[in-house]
Amino acid sequence: MIVPSAGLLTVALAPVLAVQGMRIRRGIPRLPEAAGPRTGVAGGAGGASVVPSAGVSESPGAGGAAGAPSGGPHGSGGSNGSGGSDGIDRSDGSGGAAGPVFRLAVLGESTAAGVGVATHDEGLAGFLAREAAARTGRPVRWQVAARSGVNTRTTTAELVPLLEPADVVVVALGVNELLELNRPRRFRGELRELVAAVRRRLPGVPIVVAGMPPVGRFPALPQPLRAVLGLRARALDHVMRDVARGAEGVVHATAEVPIETAGFFASDGFHPSATGYRHWAEALACALPDPPGPAGPPVAG
């Protein structure tokens, strides 16, 4: 049996897809980004917590630059190791110590920006930080550099410069590329440039590229739009795998998440709820690198 490609289906069904796309844009509620601080600490002697970092603003919403430090940005030549030579406060913010702080940055589009939940503590960054803290026994300082609606090019130009020194950068992108019908070949070049830009900003930092979500199973999308977007999402995910294989220190993390779980989606049926972000973070945590330096005692629970 010959399965039509995403491109052929898109052309053949273009009139139907255009109508369904307009209806979806009008019908899906536009949820705000997560509110509150875009940096915090999870784990450590005091357990999970959210602690604003000095000089980091709260979420400005979709119209502003997410997570922009009010002080001078850290230069790309600074160390991103665990020795503290970069001038960053590496204490866990909880009044105790459980080993050096593991620094996590979440970069990308609306899911990285926590659309679907009230605060980043309930979003991808918060859950991923707590999962990493539980697995490593380290306090985890997390940062969000994200904005709803961005694509890979915008992220490279406007959000990568906001990254603070980190021990790993998790990239959550691709859905807007999908909705914009970006071609895989073009996406490949743009994703490579994103990786290069992150490396210029934070030399040697490990990068985890989150795989495309299973859009072909999203209940909010009608057929045949769901099927076509599902095929195109697989094509973009294949690009992500290839880019990761071709770059040292870059890992592609397959998004194996149980989206059929009750309560997985937020009210728009498109973005995750707190339950959805928790499941996604549990899957992504397996791809995180081991923290540098000596580990502290395991976190109970």
Describe the model.
With 301 residues, the chain is an alpha/beta fold. It has one domain (6-60, 88-285): 3-Layer(aba) Sandwich (Rossmann fold). The protein contains eight helices and six strands; from the N terminus they run ααββαβαβααβαβα. The longest helix has 21 residues, at 225-245. Residues 8-13, 46-97 and 295-301 have low confidence and may be disordered. Pfam families: Lipase_GDSL_2.
How would you concisely characterize the structure shown here?
This protein is an alpha/beta fold.
Question: Mind sketching the topology for me?
Answer:
Elements: H1 6-12, H2 14-27, E1 39-42, E2 102-108, H3 124-136, E3 140-146, H4 152-159, E4 168-172, H5 175-179, H6 184-201, E5 207-210, H7 225-245, E6 250-253, H8 274-285
Parallel strand pairs: 2-3, 2-4, 4-5, 5-6
Antiparallel strand pairs: 1-3
Helix pairs in contact: 1-7, 3-8, 4-6, 6-7
Descriptors:
single chain, 301 residues, alpha/beta, Rossmann fold, six-stranded mixed sheet, 8 helices, 33% helix, globular
Alpha-carbon distance between the termini? 50 Å
Spatial order of the strands forming the largest sheet: 1-3-2-4-5-6
Rg from C-alpha positions? 19 Å
- Number of DSSP-assigned strands: 6
Task: Give the biggest beta sheet.
Answer: 6 strands, mixed
Strand fraction equals 5-15%
Helix segment count?
8
CATH superfamily: SGNH hydrolase
For the record, the CATH class is: Alpha Beta
Structural shape: globular
InterPro entries: Ester_Hydrolysis_Enzymes (IPR051532), SGNH_hydro (IPR013830), SGNH_hydro_sf (IPR036514)
Region (Disordered): 31-94
Biased composition (Gly residues): 61-86
Pfam family, one: Lipase_GDSL_2
